[in-house]
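Continuing the batch. This is chain 6 of the set; chains 1 through 5 are on the previous pages. Same settings as before, nothing changed between runs. Recording input and output for traceability.
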Amino acid sequence: MRKIISFMHVSLDGFVAGPNGEMNWIKIDQEIFDHVGKRISKGDTALYGRATYEMMESYWPTAADKPTATKHDIEHAKWYSQVHKVVLSKTMKGADLTNTTIISDDLSESINEIKQSRQGVGEDILLFGSPTATHSLMQLNLIDGYWLFVNPIILGQGIPLFEGIKDKTTLKLLTTRQFTSGVTELNYIVDKQ
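Output for chain 6:
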């Protein structure tokens, strides 16, 4: 069965965005892009909340066509056009979108069907950003791992990564990596023993 891995940039004090959704504190560069690109290229399914999906749709479908497109823009736009997108949204019900599935209800059952699906040949199903979707999946114990990029900043307030969790969750650290920018990657799997 494939795993749902939450991919997030996070502050040292555990926030994924500022109080008004600000993400201008996130450090990204070519070194991080190259590292992330290697892992996501092995996946064929991406999971988003509605707001993150709309943000992605407003940029990635045409990003590679722009005269100022970077290597990352070209590579990620190609991946984005091919990957199957799953969107968690109560307001997008019935939307007919290319290569996209909308999940509006029966979250637990629908996610487990996607995890067990043999359609995809990819490895992990990556949940990109999407704090609200992440919180919903956390509360249902549907996240199998956390791929975190800890940024060297303390925000003091904002949208927390971990919210609404009632049960203790034990994690096993798989890998860690320090980037030149000061960002540290922590790759955890949920220990379900």
